[in-house]
Amino acid sequence: MKGNKYATGAKYNQLSVNQLGAVHLAYRGQRYLLKDGVVNVNLAGMPGVPEDWEPPTQYADGVINLNTIDAKFAPKSDFDVDEHILGIIMAQQYSLRKGIELFGERAEVAAVDELSQIHHMDTYTPMDHTKLTPEQKRKALSALFFLTEKRDGKMKGRHVAVGSKQRSFDGYKKSDGASPTVSTNGLIITSAIDAQEGRDVAVMDIPGAYLHAFNNEFVLMCLRGKLAEMMVKVDPKLYRKYVTTSAKGEPILYVKLNKALYGLLKSALLWYKKLRGELEEMGFVVNEYDPCVANCTVEGSQLTVTWHVDDLKVSHVNPNVVTKFILDMAKIYGPNITVSRGETHDYLGMDLDYSTKGAVKVSMIKYLRKVFEDFPELIKSTRDSPAADHLFKVREEGARLLPEEQAQAFHHAVAQLLFLCMRARPDIQTPIAFLTKRVRAPDEDDWGKLKRVLQYLKGTMYLKLTLTVDSLNTIRWWVDASYGVHADLKGHTGMMMSLGKGAVMSFSRGQKLNCRSSTEAEIIGIVSLLIWTLMIIVTLKYVVFLLNADNLGEGGDLALFARIVRVSRKRTPLLIALGIAGASFFFGDAILTPAISVLAAVEGMEFIVPGFDPYVLPVAMAVLVALFLSQRWGTGRISFVFGPVMAIWFLTLAGTGLKALLDAPDMLYALSPHWGIGFLLEHGGIGLIVLSGVFLAVTGAEALYADLGHFGRAPIRLAWNLFVLPSLVLNYLHAYSTIAARSRQPTWR
After folding, report:
1. Are 44 and 9 in contact (CB under 8 A)?
2. What digits encode the pLDDT tens for the residues 75-90?
3. Phi, psi angle pair for 499, to nearest 5°
4. What are phi and psi of 250, to 5 degrees?
């Protein structure tokens, strides 16, 4: 509907404004977008509305604000759907007192029916107010009761608790009451298996499900006024003696909640545990990857149950097994369980069609109609694809942002389509994945891209996701990724998994890690190993621990051996053997480390001076001879010369690394240890080979301990932690940046 603020058009079957001004509308598949509890509906010019219709004078421009006409709108519980004509009536929801005033006996009967169910299910126990502390009374939850007039004229009551107090007084978090629901993947895969095995499928709904679950915590609720009076009418002998009055003369009834009444923060979780426990007692085993899928072997075949809160789907190759399960559930939860059997099912907003042998067809056509009715002006034509080549292109300058109201409609539509693509239309995943990134500040280009998706869906409205499974043992994966297509230069990844012939799982999303090539991802893992090898072996092992194990201020293997002997006062053969081995390793390391270090440094000249390779060995030997000959002047004089040289060297490493960090801050990903661990786990034996090379980075680190007597513990720790370690880390990050940049260069094959 054009010109409205928060809602769009629908085909109205009837229109009436009652004496109270409350609007009742019967229409085809209308969905409202709410903002701050306000719903605005423009009726003028709509099909089904008389051409000469004019709004009441108080409603300008044909817009009726439901809040301004004394109507309380409850979006979750105020409508019923007729599947045949797709008609919905927006029913007014009233408080208990208001509903009885308006509808008299009908409302009172509905209230008594609901409260009687509450009573007979032992939902709560009345409490003596004289035995309750002031603190308990203050924490008591409020109780509400709502009445709704349904399309057929019947009244329906709903009793709820106001559980928000539980967050204030008991410190509850949302996660404390979080309850799992069946995943889309679990639902799709089990449906495909149903089709492949030719199972009989039934869909069940358990009315008043929460009231079957016990609440083991002490939760107090306060019934006031008319609600307390009505509860007394249900069972006067039980409740009357517990009723007291407030200072204003209002009747008050305190009750302890025994069951998971609607509105409690943990009600959903309590119901989940109740249902899961019942299934496990029947012999079901809950799937370890989806907590709302359970299987039980009956007559040599699987009996599978999936559930979303109180909506269950059960399947088995033998219809009698399904029937027995339904009867067993009816014994537990009562005979009012609603059951749907046959070849087609409406389950969780999805249409599951098993009419074709060996296949299941998944669609959401009715849902699509509702989406289209929100945007009739956008679907006047159709498209043969959901996106064009410029999907990921974003106009950086000159982009015209959408007005607030249109931006809200954009957000709402993207949310609707996200739900659709996750369940029944994986073909629109890529454009929706992009549009979800644009909901914060959509522009006109984004609106055009949304329009194209809607036009594509309009032309393919009856396209169904068809899943056929020729073998449950054949699983195939298809994975692909793009290069830097998003505005933040991140790539895009897509995946699809097939079970036999059907695509039972898929996703399309932007990459979280900005790796511009697969090689770059490998480099991140290796550099992460380098950095954390320095942290664990050098910093933790030597600097933190071994520097404390000195022998009268001296360090090294021989000093450690001498300290052990001095403390233990024993010279066992094993201890002497370990001391000799340690000394051998020390002498070997003293020979190998300088040679490897000098040779590696001279080999680096090949990157600067082309053709230097023949001179590497002679130059390295000359440097080593010069170093050993200079030893006779004492290490103190040598360090006096080499100290400033090494300081300049490490400052150079730090400077080049810092410059690289400013140019490519994404190299900081390598600081996370999980990239190094992931590299080892993914590459197996090759990872161990790489790790052997990584350990070369800590060659000579034992000199920190061996030189303890020359420099002292404090100077070594300060120099390492504040100067050497940061310089080396920046150097490795610089190396990552350099190699990664080369890996991004195009390679022609």
Report:
1. no
2. 332 222 222 212 223 3
3. -110, 100
4. -85, 130
- At 348, which CATH number? 3.30.70
Same domain flag for 413 and 268:
no
Whether residue 131 lies inside any domain: the answer is no
Spell out a b/e string for 103-130, using b for 16 or more CB atoms within 10 Å of the CB, else e: beebbbebbbebbebbbeeebbebbebe
Is 369 in the same domain as 358?
A: no
Cβ pair 258, 214 in contact under 8 A: yes
- Position 169 scores a pLDDT of 64
- φ, ψ (nearest 5 deg) of residue 24: -115, 125
Of 463, 487, 510, the residue that ends a domain is: 510
538/642 same-domain check: yes
Whether residues 505 and 582 fall in one domain: no
Residue ranges of alpha helices (H) inside 611-743 are: 616-629, 635-663, 673-683, 685-694, 703-706, 708-711, 713-719, 725-743
Token reading at 246: 């407030």
Give the contacts of 294 (CB within 8 A, at least 6 positions apart): 276, 279, 280, 284, 285, 286, 287, 304, 305, 306
At 644 the pLDDT is 87
Q: Which residue has the higher pLDDT, 120 or 515?
A: 120
Q: How far apart are CA 566 and CA 551, in angstroms?
A: 9
What domain range is 373 assigned to? Answer: 364-510
Q: What one-character-per-residue DSSP string does 4-25 give?
A: -SS-----EEEEEE-TT--EEE
User: What are the angstrom distances between the C-alpha of 267 and each of 215, 290, 308?
Assistant: 8, 20, 14
Task: Give the residue among 479, 478, 483, 480 at the shortest CA–CA distance from 517.
Answer: 483
Tokens of 278: 């019942």
Give tens-digit pLDDT for 708-722. Answer: 777 888 888 898 889
Q: How far apart are CA 683 and CA 689, in angstroms?
A: 10
SS3 498: strand
Provide the whole-model pTM. 0.60
Average confidence (pLDDT) over 117-145? 91
- What the block records as the tokens of 199 is 């199972």
Give strand ranges (E) for 290-377: 293-298, 301-308, 311-316, 338-341, 344-347, 350-353, 359-363
- Are 400 and 436 found together in one domain? yes
Whether residue 49 is found in the same domain as residue 13: yes
Amino acid type, 82:
D
Cα 349 versus chain centre, distance: 21
The enclosing H or E element of 192 equals helix 184-197
Instruction: Please determine, for residue 27, whether its predicted confidence score (pLDDT) is greater than 50.
Output: no
Which of 70, 91, 112 terminates a domain? The answer is 91
Is the CB of residue 597 less than 8 Å from the CB of residue 700? yes
Q: What is the pLDDT of residue 307?
A: 95
Contacts of 523 (CB under 8 A, 6+ apart): 736, 739, 740, 743
pLDDT for 737 equals 66
Count of domains in the chain? 4
Instruction: Tell me how far apart the alpha carbons of residues 36 and 648 are, in angstroms, rounded to a whole number.
Output: 64
State whether 687 and 739 are in the same domain: yes
Tens of pLDDT, residue by residue over 369-424, are 989 988 888 888 899 999 988 888 888 777 789 998 899 899 989 999 999 998 89
- Enumerate the β-bridge partners of residue 506: 496
